[in-house]
Fold this sequence. Notes:
This protein is α+β, with helices and mostly antiparallel strands. The protein is built from twelve helices and 20 strands. α8 packs antiparallel against α10 (about 355-375).
Amino acid sequence: MLGLPFLAVNRGHGTAMDVNDCRHGINIHIRSLDSITFAEDGQSAVLGGGVDGDQVIRSLAARGKATGNMLIISYIRWWSDTDMMKSATGACTCVGLLGPGLGGGLGRYQGFYGLVADNILEMTMVTAKGSIVTASDRQNAELFWAMRGAGHNFGIVTQIKYKIYDDVVPDWWIASYHFTKENIDQVFEVLNQLNGNGSQPKELTTYTVLAFDREVSHEPFIVVTIYFAGSATIGQMYAQALLNLNPFCITNRTVPYPDLADAVGTGTSSPVCQQPGNSAALYPVGLLIFNTTAIHRVYDIYSDLVTNYPDFSHSIVQLEAYPVEKIQRVKPESTAYAHREDNLLVSLLSIYTPSNSNDIIALKYGRQIRDAFHAGQSDRQLNAYVNYASGDETVEEMYGHEEWRVKKLRRLKEEWDPEGRFGFYHPIR
């Protein structure tokens, strides 16, 4: 048994190409590590390494608590809802907490509480040598630094001590607005205004997709979804500029936060969480603003993909804008997460019937769309959010372009995993 490759698996939502390199090995399933224990002072909880978003959300909500990014962005698809035209969403409560958290952990609550990684106080983990160690600011501090942003490279986390907070906003207002391609310039002008170069309110998230559905239109269209932590009255003030553009479909509702994923079709019982057997690939780019020239180019490439290749018709382009002031107040050098300066996250999400030929198509169009987005900010180096990274990016693009940062990660990799046993999810080389 010695020397066999292995891969730790929780809910199985990773899209990295590297995982395909783990052949004739062992999957270590950690789902049963799903305990949640609350501290008596109500300021923290100990979470098992296999907990998922729904468990954490509902356990905390029952105690009037919340925490950083309790909906983790993951695998997105189109599904019809009972009283909505096809509606795009971008967060699944069936996703594990720690998988995304080790790569940073973006989400709707980050305006209040920051990244998942920023809320981890302590980790218990198994290293490549089989040792059980604790990592925190006081024990194995350099390892703790690396685990918060590049953690998939250093060990299997069995539990964490995690900050929790009083939940001050139990209800969220959500609204979706559908537009045709003729509205691209106006829609993204409004979205840039709402984002305010990274200064959007902590309560506000916008999640926009380019999507395709022949039952709706013969060409791709745009869906902007607003998530607002608060009342519909205030949320509608932020949405008014979109309403003024005369969208061809509008939906909205107010729901308790624990029910938000179910309301938009990404709860644990939704089809998107049932792992239907499709392949998926992401090609992310971190941005400062939306460049409409680049988005027109992206639209054309995406339209060519979904209209000419039926196996890819459920693919989308996602353009995500989360409140970032909270995470940008954290010193960049304090964790291994390197992309705190990015205001926006964009990516093609290819969803398709598995085959070698379709893998080639996904790679071709993924790179074209990634290049088109990046061309809209040619003065910046490519930043690829590691949880979305496809696997063809450089170490610097995933983990940071600063020379000191990459040197430190490589030194720690050599110290804690010299044989590269944790080498199947965006490995540091």
